[in-house]
Model the fold of this input.
Amino acid sequence: MRSRGPAATEPRRPLAARLSPERLRLIVITDPGLATPKTVEAVAEQALEAGAPSIQLRDKHQAVGELLPLARRLRDLTRRFDALFFVNDRLDLALAVGADGVHLGPTDLPVSAVRSVVPDDFLIGFSADDPDAAKAAVAEGADYLGCGTVWPTGSKRDAGQVIGIDRLRRVVAAVEAPVVAIGGITPERASLLPPTGTAGAAVIGAVMSAQNPAEAVSILLALLDSERTHNDP
Amino acid sequence: MRSRGPAATEPRRPLAARLSPERLRLIVITDPGLATPKTVEAVAEQALEAGAPSIQLRDKHQAVGELLPLARRLRDLTRRFDALFFVNDRLDLALAVGADGVHLGPTDLPVSAVRSVVPDDFLIGFSADDPDAAKAAVAEGADYLGCGTVWPTGSKRDAGQVIGIDRLRRVVAAVEAPVVAIGGITPERASLLPPTGTAGAAVIGAVMSAQNPAEAVSILLALLDSERTHNDP
Done:
């Protein structure tokens, strides 16, 4: 296999230099259906104005060529607000628009396969719902983990089993990489997250279908910003 | 936008050095449904043994992570037979397995977007059914064109309109890049292709659903190997 990335044995830059956990305090994941009647772009812009540090483009239905214009606009927007921009699943789209990283799930390309073909500073997130999967993903080169479904949710029809906050805590304890909670995050539940040692939360419906996305982001950020128990495994 | 490929102004290697048109004489495109009860891998191996110079992995249904093992096996097989290996649509999968190139259609990432993020020697094919689309794709960096649907076909449910052999001829005349005919290629029709100046044919059903794929490839290669009218626009 032609490898175009760094060999696995080359040292990568220290995590902190690549990815401050602060930038994962809130990842706003897009969903065109939930955003309706607003556009994904309009909601993302309001979220960024309110301080969202990361946006993830997720669309399991549209062809990648049809997603490209939106991906480019979100890349421009996130750059303007100095936010991170991730693309779910489609590494090719992420590379094509110069995204900061890709978020991978169990049916996407494995972390090791992606790590071997992307630049060293390209970020890889991986969805892991148990400590072993989390450790394996980090060993393969994941920079952060999405962990859930923490609470029941209606946003992701393909969401896996609900794992609860105790399992989330165990995943956080298992790895040094930042862990972002996902699944059913409401303001009430967001306030439970800082003591778990998570870096933050990833939300779909809480922002996409909010009457006032900027207000939703402000509230979530405030609740996620409480003093955290640091992840000290 | 971070560009990880060569700048558009850097000269690329001459076409002939990258891609001999002989290697496009026959592109065997995979289809798990049509291959049944055989596996795609078994059919591909028989095709390669019979001399098929190129294989393209195409699967619009499976998740990319689930396709990865097959893609790796096809990459190994094609390397063993010194054949080219292309992946349809999924540039990320193509890069992950070290494929020689990607084949793009109108709803995939545009050629220019892919060209800007891949190595200089990575091949890009594009589906174009008229002279203007063909010229535009070559200007953006396509190395070869798939042109069709030349004849009615049942293999691709998403195949576009039937263009006929006169339009194929006009596309061939419009560009210097090699043009591969696709759509409804049978042995009878294959014999009509060499005088059009096409580099070859891309087939799905003619090999995937053949009782004897090796025999089907041998017959097609013989018919496509007749003396060609060279493309001299």
In short: The two ends of chain B are 36 Å apart (CA to CA). Strands of chain B lie at 26-29, 54-57, 84-88, 101-104, 123-127, 144-147, 179-182, 200-203. The CA atoms of residues 32 and 39 of chain B lie 7 Å apart.
